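Data card: per-record layout.
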Amino acid sequence: MLAAKGYAAQSANATLAPWDFERRDVGPHDVQIDILYCGVCHSDLAQINNEWFPGIFPMIPGHEIVGRVVKVGEHVKNFKPGDLAGVGTLANSCGKCSHCEDGLEVYCENGVIPTYNGIDRYRDNLPTYGGYSNTIVTDESFTLRISEKLNLAAAAPLLCAGITTYSPMKHWKVGKGHKVAVLGLGGLGHMAVKFGIALGAEVTILSTSPHKASDAKKLGAHHFVVTSNAEEVEKVKASFDFIIDTVSAEHDFDFYLSLLRLNGVHILVGIPPAGFTIKSVGMFQLGRKSVVGSASGGLPETQEMLDFCAEHNIVSDIELIDMKDIHTAFDRMTRGDVKYRFVIDMATL
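The structure for this 349-residue chain is written out next.
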């Protein structure tokens, strides 16, 4: 076993603190990465606090991981020491079901193994620990190549916020001639804006916060609509082909469905805690509108996204923090006080 250091919660709702632990040894198909940066996702805090389901403790969060390869197993073909590499939300999957065979491991029919807060029942039945640590060992199949062209710290959030917004846009073939609305301007939302523009769509940001108009302009959004402004809303009624919904709070789905045109698609990538309700079924049916969900992508699509980002110079807008400031970052993230993703400099561990 490999000695490792991290920041862990020893129990639910606990404060993260230094913790020495062990990673598995590098096997024939494994890649060991010294972690240089790790993004901070809202799901990190949610899982520490058992908001979704009972967690596995001690828990080391973090699934937006980038760093340099320091060791590879004897059968590894695509990585060598010194390469930049990343690890996203997935640590393993069954590898045998139809979804895994199609490169859609995130939808594994037998259950995916998360990068942290999981038990890898397909390999060694050991807990998985995330990127708030100095090193990680991962199977080559679940390791991503990172271009030297990209700002490495700002590339970290691509492993979750990036692929979570890129994947549905590619699946529903968003591109030139489409009008896309991005609901919510945060970690996911600002990535959706960047991808929508790069794919050639006309992008509008829908927000409850008028003060975010200047941010929308800086990001390159074509339009900005304050959803409490009746006059602005009236101008975009029944006009969007797609709404990328990044909001994880309760909101009025009937209202947003009214903004979709015929055959419009409302794509959920946020996770409203109470789910959603559609009351105006007639409008839903007569407009032949759809509400769909999407998770982060499979490994081939995530690599495609990273290569797309290198080609188009797309990274996340970040605030780089020290490891000791993680709880301040959590507090600010909860208040929406970040533009637009915190990333931990793991040299401060």
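Known properties of this structure: The chain has two domains: 2-160+316-348, 162-293. The chain has a mean pLDDT of 96.

See the next section for split statistics.
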